[in-house]
Design a protein that fits this description.
The chain is mainly alpha-helical. It contains 16 helices and no strands. Keywords: Cell membrane, Membrane, Transmembrane, Transmembrane helix.
């Protein structure tokens, strides 16, 4: 019986790179053809918001893919297995609290989670870390305290609700993996042999592997989020603030579509004075866990079928956890 050789990584220019080159080449003739449309105030507002989202997110994305490359070059399956509990059910809360030590935006942690799964970490544990890190790290907690004028009840509620969301999602995947064969786990079919070659080669291969799809879907998500910001005014959302159920649903959807960075969303939440503290907490918990930009990035990193199951599950669990913690603390 012959053994098929593993596919080699192609470090050349792929279709995504050619797409970028094509778009850049078409930019100048399109500018002359669409001159009047580009001067439209609505388009300029869209462009400003789009650039703000991308500029705000790209440094964290770069940080994430660099850290992803370091993880791939340095960590081995043996090391991951040694530092994490053997039982996934115990490893899930450990991964959640590990997120406290990584001051990374949600854009950065998606490729990190992808890299951790390639290094042998169970998908449920990597997903827990991915959900916890953007929401419970010190930078986010400090920004929340500043935005809410030192209110430690709001800071504590955000920490507890976000941690609860991450751990519950992890446990759901631990429980469901063995019981539901149809469950779509993160797609890591592109696992490549990272133990071959020098550490620098493994670092470059992993970083390149993660950056192109993550950056492409980040831009796609930013395009949609900016469009919604332009054509769906905040005043329409505030119109439902008087109804507790509608307020929670509205701010869940608002957090999903506005796609704010977790280090900045507390200032927006504090400005929504028409809403209750619990509804604001829902906004703060849902946004870092799942927004339209993250959904696009996760579809690119882990596969479309996985995202179709994962996105609605996270939205429901995050909103429910925020309501429960808000009812207890706020």
């Amino acid at each position: 019986m012959t053994t098929e050789a593993p596919p080699q990584r192609d470090m050349g220019v792929g279709s995504q790179s050619w797409l970028v080159v094509g778009l850049l080449a078409a930019a100048f003739p399109l500018q002359s053809l669409l001159g009047s449309a580009l001067d439209n105030p609505a388009f300029q507002t869209w462009a400003t918001i789009f650039l703000a989202i991308v500029v705000q997110s790209v440094p964290f994305l770069v940080f994430g893919v660099v850290l992803s490359g370091i993880i791939s070059a340095v960590l081995s399956e043996r090391f991951v297995a040694r530092v994490m509990p053997q039982r996934p059910a115990l490893a899930v809360p450990v991964a959640g609290f590990a997120g406290v030590g990584l001051p990374a935006c949600e854009c950065a942690v998606v490729p990190i989670a992808n890299s951790l799964t390639r290094r042998g970490l169970p998908p449920a544990v990597a997903l827990t870390f991915m959900l916890a890190a953007p929401a419970v790290n010190p930078a986010v907690l400090v920004s929340t305290a500043v935005a809410f004028s030192g209110r430690m009840d709001m800071v504590s509620a955000r920490f507890l609700a976000s941690m609860l969301t991450a751990v519950v999602i992890g446990w759901i995947y631990v429980w469901a993996t063995a019981r539901f064969p149809a469950l779509h786990l993160p797609d890591i079919r592109e696992r490549f042999h990272q133990d071959e070659g020098s550490r620098w080669a493994r670092f470059a291969a992993a970083a390149w592997h993660d950056f192109l799809p993550a950056a492409g879907f980040l831009v796609l998500g930013a395009v949609v989020a900016a469009a919604i910001n332009v054509w769906v005014p905040i005043r329409l959302v505030e119109a439902v603030a008087d109804n507790a159920l509608f307020a929670v649903v509205a701010l869940t959807l608002f957090a999903f579509v506005i796609a704010l960075c977790s280090e900045a969303d507390a200032f927006v939440a504090a400005s929504l004075t028409a809403f209750s503290d619990t509804a604001k907490l829902v906004f703060l918990v849902v946004g870092p866990a799942m927004d339209i930009k993250l959904a696009a990035m996760e579809a690119g990193q882990f596969g479309r079928k996985f995202a179709q199951q994962f996105v609605p599950l996270v939205l429901v669990v995050a909103a429910s956890a925020a309501c429960l913690i808000g009812w207890v603390i706020l």
